[in-house]
């Protein structure tokens, strides 16, 4: 690993938590160069919902690669793009009675967020955006302005403005009427805060610590937006594409956002791709007004179409619901009793074990380090990185799902036992 430490920038992050050199991957397993297998509860930060090297998707990618088809197309018309658009419309939009146009952005999620913010401001002719404390939306300047993490914002190197943060209905504000607070801001002539062009949110805050927003709260938020002529943007980049069961995480509330950002698993195979869904009446762009050299990733179109097909063929939504119940039951019966201060949150196949009530960041880190030593890749999230984040591929086998959960339990027991001994020795 010395070459990485010598020549790669200090900005590298995940490799510090998982300090081995990986070589192969298949399904829900990653293999280091010495052949050791690791169960993957990370799934490429949500970019690998269909697992590593999914055979169905891979076959279609290989067919395309070996047939000398268009590999780079900007926003020109191509067969690959047409087939993806047709499939997305037939398999996702029409069955759900959703009416959106598709805008292909740059290669990553932050590009879709940037496009959404620009379009909202253009449509409403207002500069401000409301986002939520605990939210994460990307690392380019516009998206970063809507990301609340202090440490991330400090990397900008200049003031981040144009966004006002509202209290999220979780954690310290769980008992607060957060929507009433926003309503008062919008109606009080002395609030000092201008009406925004849009409100941006994740229906499940992922990096913020796995906070699931109540469906009634989501419905009332949409009503508030419509009442005040504010656009509603949902960030589906990490929790969309079936992560919560349904394809979109907002479906459980029966709402229809004005703008929807997608990336990560939309490509199906870990390929760079991002997508903005917009209501037709909001398609106010002039030709080329928002563009990017890699806004037409042809290989990603092929993989994305195959992913939609695989999702239907494998009844993936039903699989996620089944696995959700297993994880929920395990966390409630096996993890929660380990300490009275443990908090469990999640749905679908994104879950958080909040240990902030009894240990510090070092303790939470040690839990994931021990898990890695035992053969499990799992990351942390939330304030102080004290939420263990369970996010396996949606295709994870029940055998590996169970084994991974057992490793988490064992690792937590080890840390809790050690911290208890340390406490007794100091008292």
From TrEMBL:
<dbReference type="GO" id="GO:0030170">
    <property type="term" value="F:pyridoxal phosphate binding"/>
</dbReference>
<keyword id="KW-0032">Aminotransferase</keyword>
<dbReference type="InterPro" id="IPR012773">
    <property type="entry name" value="Ectoine_EctB"/>
</dbReference>
<dbReference type="GO" id="GO:0047307">
    <property type="term" value="F:diaminobutyrate-pyruvate transaminase activity"/>
</dbReference>
<dbReference type="InterPro" id="IPR004637">
    <property type="entry name" value="Dat"/>
</dbReference>
<comment type="similarity">
    <text>Belongs to the class-III pyridoxal-phosphate-dependent aminotransferase family.</text>
</comment>
<dbReference type="InterPro" id="IPR015424">
    <property type="entry name" value="PyrdxlP-dep_Trfase"/>
</dbReference>
<dbReference type="InterPro" id="IPR049704">
    <property type="entry name" value="Aminotrans_3_PPA_site"/>
</dbReference>
<dbReference type="InterPro" id="IPR005814">
    <property type="entry name" value="Aminotrans_3"/>
</dbReference>
<dbReference type="Pfam" id="PF00202">
    <property type="entry name" value="Aminotran_3"/>
</dbReference>
<dbReference type="InterPro" id="IPR015422">
    <property type="entry name" value="PyrdxlP-dep_Trfase_small"/>
</dbReference>
<dbReference type="InterPro" id="IPR015421">
    <property type="entry name" value="PyrdxlP-dep_Trfase_major"/>
</dbReference>
<dbReference type="GO" id="GO:0019491">
    <property type="term" value="P:ectoine biosynthetic process"/>
</dbReference>
<comment type="pathway">
    <text>Amine and polyamine biosynthesis; ectoine biosynthesis; L-ectoine from L-aspartate 4-semialdehyde: step 1/3.</text>
</comment>
<dbReference type="GO" id="GO:0045303">
    <property type="term" value="F:diaminobutyrate-2-oxoglutarate transaminase activity"/>
</dbReference>
<keyword id="KW-0808">Transferase</keyword>
<protein>
    <recommendedName>
        <fullName>Diaminobutyrate--2-oxoglutarate transaminase</fullName>
        <ecNumber>2.6.1.76</ecNumber>
    </recommendedName>
</protein>
<keyword id="KW-0663">Pyridoxal phosphate</keyword>
């Amino acid at each position: 690993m010395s070459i990485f430490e010598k020549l790669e920038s200090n900005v590298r992050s995940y490799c510090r938590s998982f300090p081995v050199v990986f070589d192969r991957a298949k399904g829900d397993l990653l293999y280091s160069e010495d052949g050791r297998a690791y169960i993957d509860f990370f799934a490429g930060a949500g970019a690998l919902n269909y697992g590593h090297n999914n055979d169905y998707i891979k076959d279609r990618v290989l067919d395309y690669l070996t047939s000398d088809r268009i590999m780079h197309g900007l926003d020109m018309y191509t067969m690959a793009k047409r087939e993806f658009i047709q499939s997305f419309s037939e398999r996702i939009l029409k069955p759900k009675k959703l009416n959106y146009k598709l805008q292909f952005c740059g290669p990553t999620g932050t590009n879709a967020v940037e496009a959404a913010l620009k379009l909202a401001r253009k449509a409403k002719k207002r500069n401000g955006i409301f986002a939520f404390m605990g939210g994460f939306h990307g690392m380019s300047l516009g998206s970063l302005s809507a990301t609340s993490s202090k440490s991330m914002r400090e990397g900008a190197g200049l003031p981040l403005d144009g966004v006002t943060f509202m209290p999220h209905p979780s954690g310290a504000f769980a008992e607060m009427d957060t929507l009433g607070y926003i309503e008062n801001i919008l109606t009080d002539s002395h609030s000092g805060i201008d009406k925004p062009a849009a409100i941006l949110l994740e229906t499940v805050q992922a990096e913020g610590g796995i906070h699931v927003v109540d469906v009634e709260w989501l419905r009332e938020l949409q009503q508030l937006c419509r009442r005040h002529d504010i656009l509603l943007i949902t960030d589906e980049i990490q929790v969309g594409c079936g992560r919560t069961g349904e394809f979109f995480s907002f479906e459980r509330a029966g709402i229809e956002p004005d703008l929807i950002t997608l990336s990560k698993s939309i490509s199906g195979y870990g390929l760079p791709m991002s997508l903005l869904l917009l209501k037709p009446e909001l398609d106010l762009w002039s030709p080329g007004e928002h563009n990017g050299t890699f806004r037409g990733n042809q290989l990603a179109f092929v993989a994305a179409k195959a992913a939609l097909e695989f999702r239907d063929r494998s009844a993936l939504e039903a699989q996620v619901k089944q696995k959700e119940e297993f994880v929920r039951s395990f966390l409630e019966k096996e993890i929660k009793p380990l300490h009275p201060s443990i908090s469990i949150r999640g749905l679908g196949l994104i879950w958080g074990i909040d240990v902030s009530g009894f240990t510090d960041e070092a303790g939470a880190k040690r839990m994931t380090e021990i898990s890695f030593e035992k053969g499990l890749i799992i990351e942390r999230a939330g304030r102080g990185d004290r939420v263990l984040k369970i996010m396996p591929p949606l295709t994870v086998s029940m055998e590996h799902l169970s084994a991974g959960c057992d490793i988490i339990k064992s690792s937590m027991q080890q840390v809790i036992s050690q911290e208890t001994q340390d406490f007794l020795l100091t008292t």
